[in-house]
Write a structure and sequence with these properties.
CATH architecture: Alpha-Beta Complex
Structural class: alpha+beta
Radius of gyration: 13 Å
Distance between the termini: 5 Å
Largest sheet: 6 strands, antiparallel
Strand content: 25-35%
Oligomer: single chain
Shape: globular
């Protein structure tokens, strides 16, 4: 799977209902479920945590090692398929995936669905990862 394939897979999930801890596009996804589902669609399934609270005081206990999932720290400007961890508020975190037009796909709790936005969702960038090409 390439980063562009990850971008395209995430775009295909726009419109899926939002569901906290959701991991199945048929029943709903949250932002972590969006990444998990997009990776699975691209043939590179990954295991991501569930059961986390809405507010996280200790992110480290819930954040798997990105390298073990095939991601590395991005050292340049955004590219399609990049994954950004945002901190929209105290003890809040959110994932967004750059699409092929450098818009952003993410699971929007307020709108209750996966959406595509032209701008990066609000928040401080806590991490920026890029998928290393994986075998399909």
């Amino acid at each position: 799977m390439s980063p562009v394939q990850l971008a395209r897979a995430s775009e295909g999930l726009v419109g899926v209902p939002f569901r906290l801890h959701g991991r199945d596009p048929e029943t709903g996804l949250d932002c972590i479920g969006l990444l998990s589902a997009a990776m699975a669609i691209g043939g590179a399934p990954i295991a991501l945590p569930t059961g986390y609270p809405l507010r996280l005081r200790e992110l480290a206990q819930w954040l798997p090692d990105p390298a073990e999932l095939g991601f590395g720290k991005a050292l340049s400007a955004f590219r399609p398929g990049d994954v950004v961890l945002l901190q929209p508020g105290p003890a809040q975190f959110h994932l967004a995936i750059a699409d092929h037009m450098l818009g952003w796909v993410h699971a929007h709790a307020g709108l209750r669905r996966v959406v595509r936005d032209a701008a990066l969702p609000a928040g401080t960038i806590a991490a920026h990862w890029r998928l290393r090409r994986t075998r399909k």
